[in-house]
Design goal:
Strand 4 (144-150), helix 7 and strand 5 (170-179) form a beta-alpha-beta unit. The protein is of the alpha/beta class and 203 residues long. The chain is built from 9 helices and 5 strands. It has helices at residues 6-17, 37-42, 48-52, 79-88, 101-109, 111-118, 159-169, 189-192, 195-199, and strands spanning 69-73, 93-98, 125-129, 144-150, 170-179. This is Arsenite methyltransferase. InterPro entries: Arsenite_MeTrfase-like, Methyltranfer_dom, SAM-dependent_MTases_sf.
Length: 203
C-alpha cells in the first residue's frame, strides 16, 4: 500500500513538474535512438513540442497498420499516436487516451499540423482526456485491431481491469503491444513509497 495518492503524483509529475524529457531523474525512459528504423523515418514529421515531452520506455508500435483501428493507452502528448496515425494511413483510426490535462492539450493542439505534415485531408486521430481504466467507455467492444501502451500500465492501480478492458476492446485476433517497466522481485518499501521513483515507473 502506497503512502501517497498515486494518481495525483503521476498527474502532477507529468502535468507540471516535467517540462521535457531532459527533466527526468532516472534512465527508465528510453533514448529515441533505441527505436525501429520505420519509427525513426516518421519522427522528423512529429512536432518538436511533442517529441521533447515524450516519456516512453520503448517502442510498442508494429509496422503493418495500414487501415487499422488503434487505441493508445496513456498517450501523453501523442508521440506514439501520431507515429501510428502515419502508419495507419488516412483510412486508419487512432484514439489516444490520457489522464493528464497538460499532456492531452499538447496532443490536441498539434492535430491539424500533424495531419498536414502527413498529407492527410481528413483527421484520423482523436484524443480523449480520461483514465485508461475508463478506456472501455470510449471504445466499442471488439472494435480495435491493435492496442498499444508505452510505459503506462505499470502506473495503474488496477492492472487486471485495464487488461480485461483491452481484451474486450480488441477484435477477434486483435493484438496488444506494450512496453513497460517491471520487477522480478518484491520491491522494498523505501522504493515503493518514493514518489519520484513511482512517477518514473521504478517504484
Amino acid at each position: 500500500m502506497k503512502n501517497f495518492d498515486t494518481e495525483e503524483v503521476v498527474k502532477g509529475y507529468y502535468g507540471s513538474t516535467l517540462s521535457s524529457s531532459d527533466d527526468l531523474k532516472t534512465t527508465a525512459c528510453c533514448d529515441l535512438d533505441d527505436i525501429p528504423e520505420y519509427v525513426k523515418d516518421i519522427s522528423p514529421l512529429i512536432a518538436d513540442e511533442i517529441q521533447m515531452k515524450f516519456y516512453g520506455c520503448g517502442s510498442p508500435i508494429p509496422l503493418h497498420l495500414e487501415g487499422c483501428s488503434v487505441v493508445d493507452l496513456g498517450c501523453g502528448t501523442g508521440r506514439d499516436s501520431y507515429i501510428v496515425s502515419k502508419l495507419a494511413g488516412e483510412h486508419g483510426k487512432v484514439l489516444g487516451i490520457d489522464m493528464t490535462n497538460e499532456q492531452i492539450d499538447v496532443a490536441r493542439k498539434h492535430i491539424n499540423t500533424q495531419m498536414k505534415a502527413f498529407g492527410y485531408e481528413n483527421k484520423n486521430v482523436k484524443f480523449v482526456h480520461d483514465y485508461i481504466e475508463n478506456a472501455a467507455k470510449h471504445v466499442s467492444p471488439g472494435s480495435a485491431d491493435v492496442v498499444i501502451s508505452n510505459c503506462v500500465i505499470n502506473l495503474t492501480e488496477d492492472k487486471e481491469r485495464v487488461l480485461d478492458d483491452i481484451f474486450r476492446m480488441l477484435k477477434n485476433g486483435g493484438e496488444l503491444y506494450f512496453s513497460d517497466i517491471y520487477a522480478d522481485r518484491r520491491l522494498p518499501d523505501e522504493i515503493r513509497n518514493n514518489e519520484l521513483l513511482y512517477a518514473e515507473c521504478l517504484g
